[in-house]
Amino acid sequence: MVSLIDNEGYLRVDPTLLKLVKLLLLTLIFVSVSFAAVSSRLFSVIRFESIIHEFDPWFNFRATKHLVNTSFYEFLNWFDDKTWYPLGRVTGGTLYPGLMVTSSVIYHILKFVGLPVDIRNICVLLAPAFSSITSVAMYLLTLEVTSTTPTLKHKKTAALFSAFLMGITPGYISRSVAGSYDNEAIAITLLLVTFFLWVKSVNTGSIFYGALTAMFYFYMVSAWGGYVFITNIIPLHVFILLLMGRFDYKIYTSYCTWYALGTLMSMQIPFVGFLPIRSNDHMAAFGVFGLLQLVLLVSYLKDTLSPTKFVRLMFAFSAVVATVGISGLVLATKMGWIAPWTGRFYSLWDTNYAKVHIPIIASVSEHQPTPWSSFFFDLNFMIWLFPVGVYFCFQELSNPAVFVIVYSVLGSYFAGVMVRLMLTLAPIVCVCAGITLGRLFNIYLDVKDELSSWWNNKESQDSLFTLLSKMVVSATFVFYLVFYVQHCTWVTSNAYSSPSVVLASRNPDGSQLLIDDYREAYYWLRMNTPEDAKVMAWWDYGYQIGGMADRTTFVDNNTWNNTHIATVGRAMATSEDKAEVIMRQLDVDYVLVIFGGLIGYSGDDINKFLWMVRISEGIWPEEISERNYFTDRGAYRVDDLATDAMKNSLMYKLSFYRFGDAYNGLDPVDRVRQQKLSSSYAKSITLDVMEEAFTSENWIVRIYKLKNRDNFGRDLIDIGKKDRKQQSKRTKRMLSRKKPTLDLRV
Amino acid sequence: MGNMYRLDDLHKDPNQSAISTLAPTLLRSRASSSMYTQDPDMLSDDELISIDSDRRVDLRSNVWENVKYERIIDVLKSYVKERHVIHARNIAPEPTSEYYFAVPGFVRDDVALFVATLEVPRQQEPLLQAERVPELSSPDVVYYKIELPYPIAPKSQIHITVSYVLTNQLEPAPEKGPMGAEQRLFFKTTKLALSAYNTLSYELKILGANKPQEMALELPSDVDPEEFKASARDPFLVYGPYQKTFKPLSNLPLALIFTKNQPLPFVNLLKRDFWVSHWSDSLQLEEYYELTNKGIQLDRGFSRVDWMNGRYTMRPTPVITSIQIPLPKVETSEVYFVDKVGNVSTSLFHNNELVLKPRFPIFGGWNYNFTVGWTSPLSKFLKSEGDLHVLRVPLLDGLNDATYDKVEISFFLPEGARFVGFDDILNLKEWKIDHKFSYLDITTGHTQVTFVLENLVDEMRNVDILIEYEYGLAGMLRKPVTAAVYIFGALLGLLLLRKIDLSIKPSA
Asked: What are the Basic residues biased-composition ranges (chain A) (predicted)?
């Protein structure tokens, strides 16, 4: 008998059946959330193709291919002589291998079970696949937080809501669409799993969960530099709990297990090495570890000693510890045993720091401070549910609730400093919004009492109004949820699904037109230049050239060697003759520039040019000055009124060389800067040391070849000048001969 | 099988372009000079050439006499086609059934296809056995032995047609030039027929040599230069006819330069992978090309402005701007065009032809590697009898005018299929059987049969490859059953694992 109506008139259902239905519903919800999460990330694959996006993913993809084709140890020892020419890069020791290892493990497992999926497809679809795991991890985390906090009842509703919100929030999708094969793609999943395990281990005080936390922390360390976030947030959580007087053996056990194991394991990653004991980023974790031992000692002493003795001892003890600790820190920093604070770290605290001191960090658009609008853009209505959730956490300050608060505060601050750290804020916003929504719907959808009282006593106006108001509130939030889904889909579709390698445009008749200039040019390089050709381009394109054109590059998106990047910037910013010297020293064969002036592609090199100037000015201030590239009125011009420094710079010449000829004698217009060059001036832009080797269909990519030295040792620029003089004489003669002297007679 | 070899008729070539009239002034045929005989000592009358002790080859030049010898060279495509129409008479006292055909030694490695036919009325199979005789070959001459179907009586005549294709013969001269420059091709051949026998009447016609110019060659002067001058007879450039006796192996070099504003596509490597699936009744073909244009190269870098302003895509240029790939007549689906950096969106169908636009125009010396593929119904290519299947696919699809240096054709037969054999394949260098693990191949993998062919041209498209294999119901069921067993095993294992309790708890 599955169900029956008992003598009180209630429907009784078999509990096992109920359990089954519950399980089924839960499974269905997870399947739906996963489906929504994965499918909304596939816009780019459907619209374009299964292709790796943007810049960094190209390097990760290339590294993954290397790993798949060789062995793990060869990968760790990989010295890549195709990047950072002539230095080369110890790639195996300077990357986080987690992402590549994950893909290659998936690749080998699939191959083993008879599914030899192409490694490119695995890389492209890794991020969507992990996003569905992320929503499960999110469910577990919220469940863990809510189930141990008595006031945050209705735990499953909140957890399911947070899983759903996390699945499609644009803040996370921005880094995990199909093809966005970046460290963050798996790191966010690992971040949430680590946090879930941490909360669980604090709740249970189990070494098992502490060790698991350390394991996933290790995985996180191997995958993303953002692991420092965990390294600091867990100690901070513990520290605040200590201040609140919450010290217990559960915290002690889980923290010590995590710290000891996690630190040891993280040191196994070649790129991290001894950083956990030397870098100041990791000092907080170490300090809290020491503090916990002291607290333990103190609580032992407190139990054994008399109160007066204990107080006296405490004062002496804390004074000694403080002096020794601080002087030790200062000394170690001074002696250089521990690394100084990194530039990126400073820029986390002072948003202007980078712009003033490290232009190379400021030049990256994702390192800019976050505009207010992007909070709404990336998080939609969660941004105002977020504080409510935090408020709920304050109501009952259980250990997990404190964790949520700590994470919320840190996450909000960092998200405000750097656009890309929106990614770390999104999960906690989802937790808080989930808590809020769960509570809200539990109250407002619970209409059992109202219904029964309305049913029993039809005259009761009160219950009817309560019912109505509950319905209105619920309906409003259902609308917000629907709107959220719509907003997320729209943002994903319009803002985050462009591979940026292929540009979509529209024909006059409305049909889609793909602008595929990047691949055209990269493929040309790959097919028609010698295999050891060295291509100089601004560092943005380094990874793409390495990945698609398979040619040696000078600088790429791994920005640790500022001087080398500045050298390339200097070659681009100085005049042709000086640039020639630099290029010959660097052994350049080809130079690649991006020029959007013909079709109005705004992400081109002329728009990035100021960063090249600034970065090289940082090293050679006597030679290059940013001011020289602006007109007297402070305008950034590329037309006839451009400054001499601008007109003579190599970058300018490479971009505009023969630009005028494309307009058949009319005045050429730079469609990005909306400036009109006169045709006579456009004709006078000459190039002597370089020769045009290839220009893509829409002129977005222009490739030049450095000419060989003259056989007679003459200066290439002199030769060019001489040629032009002769040519102009000839054309003058031709013109004078051609032009009939016709006067208009009236 | 043999009669499937068919060269397009030289005169009905669809690509035949208008050939401008020959400017006689351009012809400087003072190049003519002495006819020289190769190794006259070796090949004097009545001499038997002894190769080794147990094999003697009879190459008596007085066995045959070429009564009429007409030779046509076709340079309309990116390679050279030659057709020799020979009326020969047996002048030996006894019947003979072998005719030796000589080809100049400098093209020895470039003969892509050699076909000899006997023109006899009411004859069903005019194709003749022809094979190279390496023992006879010298650095200057390569001989082919043509086996006649029956001995020819003394004093009677036969009418043989020998056609062959020579690759790698045309090269641009000059090698480099500015964009839009006229492409002049240099072509070297012999002015006379290099025959092993006396020739009584001879004529040479060259088809497709636009604006020809003969290079002046310095030669001994025992020949009247005026006699070997060319004349233009639209659309041919004609030498002769000469009504005089040419001695065996008479030779006179000819170096011709002519204009051809078409690219010279050359495929360094073509990989053709056929994936056979009986379950889905589909034959998937994937072709990987390594294409080069052997035409005139740019003397400086590629200037996009000049390319745009010159409107070069509107007129014939020696640049490959699009690649036409005729699809098989049967229905095709899932057509794709990718290269090593992803999908190339610029492709379209036109009259059952796939028109591919490469990412960039392919100038002389430039390379472009790409992959195309499509799926067709397998039943259109398969003849089955019980478990035995014969698959018949064209040797080549693809480009309309191209030379293939190396072609690797692979057949991926379904897992569990047994390869039985194959029919004669042209220019086959080697073949091997291997295994390839593809989707859900758990036991032995797809049976992969690979044939490596060398030196092909697009006109061999009409030739088919036949392979035979055995694949029955047992084989068809093997894969789903194995997969099911593995999944069952995995689920069973999961069930067992769930029974194990590893938790550490104080026992209650």
From this structure: 723-739
Query: CB A694 to CB B360 under 8 A?
Result: yes
* DSSP-derived pairing of the beta strands B49-52 and B55-57: antiparallel
Residue A137: the pLDDT is 95
Residues 6+ away with beta carbon under 8 Å from A645? A625, A628, A629
- What ipTM describes this predicted complex? 0.85
Mutate to test the interface with A, among B179, B304, B487 (most CBs of A within 10 A): B304
Ramachandran class of A716: left when φ > 0, alpha when ψ lies in -120 to 50, beta otherwise: alpha
pLDDT of res. A524: 94
Residue B311 touches partner A, C-beta closer than 8 Å: no
List, in order, residues 6 or more apart from A684 with CB less than 8 Å away.
Answer: none
Q: Verify whether the Cβ–Cβ distance B303 to A695 is below 8 Å.
A: yes
Q: Which chain A residues contact residue B365 at CB under 8 A?
A: 528
Most B CBs within 10 Å, among A515, A522, A527, to test the B interface: A527
- Tens of pLDDT along B364-401? 999 999 999 999 999 999 999 988 999 999 998 888 88
CB distance A121 to A50 below 8 Å: yes
Using DSSP, state whether B428 is helix, strand or coil: strand
End-to-end CA distance of chain B: 83
Which residues on chain A are in Cβ contact (under 8 Å) with B308?
Answer: 662
Q: What is the pLDDT of residues A156-183, one digit of tens each?
A: 888 999 999 999 999 999 989 999 999 9
- Beta-bridged to residue A591, according to DSSP, are A536, A704
Q: What one-letter code names the amino acid at B200?
A: L
- B265-477: CATH topology: Immunoglobulin-like (2.60.40)
Which tokens is A420 given?
A: 């890309």
Q: Is B305 on the interface with A (CB under 8 A)?
A: yes
Coil/strand/helix, residue B429:
strand
Q: How distant is the Cα of A119 from the closest Cα of chain B, in angstroms?
A: 13
- For residues A155 and A163, what is the distance between their CA atoms, to the nearest angstrom? 12
Under DSSP, the state recorded for A341 is: P
Q: At B332, is the secondary structure helix, strand, or coil? A: coil
d(CA B97, CA B61): 14
List the domain boundaries for chain A. Answer: 96-438, 517-729
CATH architecture of A517-729: 3-Layer(aba) Sandwich (3.40)
| CATH of region B15-259 | 2.60.40
Residue-wise over A354-390: b if at least 16 C-beta within 10 A, else e? bbeebbbbbbbeebbebeeeebebbbbbbbebbebbb
Point out the residues of chain A with pLDDT beneath 70: 1-5, 7-9, 152-155, 338-349, 351-358, 360-362, 457-461, 559, 732-746
B359 vs A114: CB contact, 8 Å cut-off? no
